[in-house]
Amino acid sequence: MNWSLAARAAKMSPSVIREILKVTEQPGIISFAGGLPSPKTFPVAAFSEACARVLRDDGHAALQYAASEGYGPLREMVAAGLPWSVDPAQVLITTGSQQGLDLLAKVLIDKASPMLVETPTYLGALQAFTPMEPDILSVASDEEGVDIADLASKASGARFFYVLPNFQNPTGRTMTEARRAALSLRAAELGLPIVEDNPYGDLWFDAPPPPPLTARNPDGCLYLGSFSKVLAPGLRLGFLVAPKALYPKLLQAKQAADLHTPGFNQRMVAEVMKDGFLERHVPTIRALYKSQCDAMLAALQRDMPEDVSWNHPGGGMFLWVRLPEGMNANDLLPKAVERHVAFVPGVAFYADKADPRSLRLSFVTPSVEQIAVGVAALAAAIRESRSACAFSAI
User: Fold this and answer.
1) Tell me, what DSSP letter sits at residue 64?
2) What CATH number labels 12-42+279-393?
3) If DSSP codes are grouped into helix, strand and coil, which group holds residue 187?
4) Domain edges within the chain
5) d(CA 271, CA 237)
6) Which of 142, 214, 240, 285 fits 223 for a cystine, CB–CB 3.0-4.6 Å?
């Protein structure tokens, strides 16, 4: 039998991160690769109790088909928890925030239509957008966020600009208040919609990030959020908040994709979130991640060669490293794995013109002890690789 693939299937590609995670399953590997929340943060006891209550009080409804929009009380909780006025009718519960990216790609992107992303950007978003065959344009960015002038020069005809303002994946950077204000104003002037992805915004260390872009222009933005980083990723629960004019088509795409997000999971999350649980729980995640970030920064400072550079994130799960001139993170990875440490080369996070010297490190899953050992091993691999490059150049 000859199966004929759709043209868009050729645009699909495996996740580089998922492939690297297979390597990290080898015994003894210290992984800085996966963007996996620490299992220490999963509120198992709270979910055990919530599961029993849901099955006891609402079991038949929880196990039945449900509304595509999502569980009403959970949508109300989402709307009430956002820092701008949101009608719960604008909230769509998704099967992970990754589904939100897939839905908006189906609704907003035509073949060859231009769209804008940061440099670099989230790999999962590129995977969701690429099968729709858009013309993806990278907008220059720096430590303060997106370059407004470069954005304006590329905005003509663009369907939207996809951006992660808070503790961005992969770099860990946070867009400043001044840059957010400038972006919001310029995008409104250009008539450029913004897709704001915010899975990490609650994971700040010392101070919360500035207000969301969507709060400044709700009708010009589509907002994505997730329960994976503050509760548990295995539940596969996210949400989007859409302008009322756009919501019906996103709902239709959701219905075609999976009918609805699991109602049992939604009820459990709503049950757990009652009585201010997140206000008590999320600070424990922040404290853990800050201590592990501090441990990684200290190890980098102690062990890395002087010409390796990195940033200092104010929250989230990642930091961004740049190797010395002439080195390539793809070439470094197998040498690091030989020393029992793994990371993600930065090339995977670029739509074009990738920086081969960049790499992403996640600090939230390994222990403090593993961070120290892993960073020392990575530093040794860098020195070994640089020596080999210098020898071959002679």
Assistant:
1) S
2) 3.90.1150.10
3) helix
4) 12-42+279-393, 44-275
5) 14
6) 214
Given a contact cutoff of 8 angstroms between Cβ atoms, the answer to whether 209 and 174 are in contact is yes
Burial class (CB in 10 A: 0-12, 13-18, 19+), 64: exposed
- Residue 51 one-letter amino acid: C
- List pLDDT tens digits, range 237-272: 999 999 999 999 999 999 999 999 999 999 999 999
Is 16 within 8 Å of 348 (Cβ atoms)?
Answer: yes
Q: HSE-up of 379 (CA within 13 Å, CB side)? A: 20
The tens digit of pLDDT for each residue in 157-216 reads 999 999 999 999 999 999 999 999 999 999 999 999 999 999 999 999 999 999 999 999
Instruction: List the beta strands (DSSP E) in the chain.
Output: 30-31, 91-94, 114-118, 135-139, 141-142, 145-146, 161-163, 194-197, 221-226, 238-241, 309-310, 318-322, 341-342, 344-345, 358-362
What residues pair up with 117 in beta bridges, in sequence order? 138, 162
Residue with tokens 């060859």: 112
Q: Which CATH class is domain 44-275?
A: alpha beta
Residues in the chain: 394
Query: Strands 30-31 and 341-342: what pairing?
Result: parallel
Contacts of 388 by beta carbon, 8 Å cutoff, 6+ apart: none
Per the CB < 8 A criterion, the answer to whether 319 and 311 are in contact is: yes
Q: Which residue has the tokens 């640089």?
A: 386
Q: Which residues contact 368 (CB under 8 A, 6 or more apart)?
A: 291, 292, 295
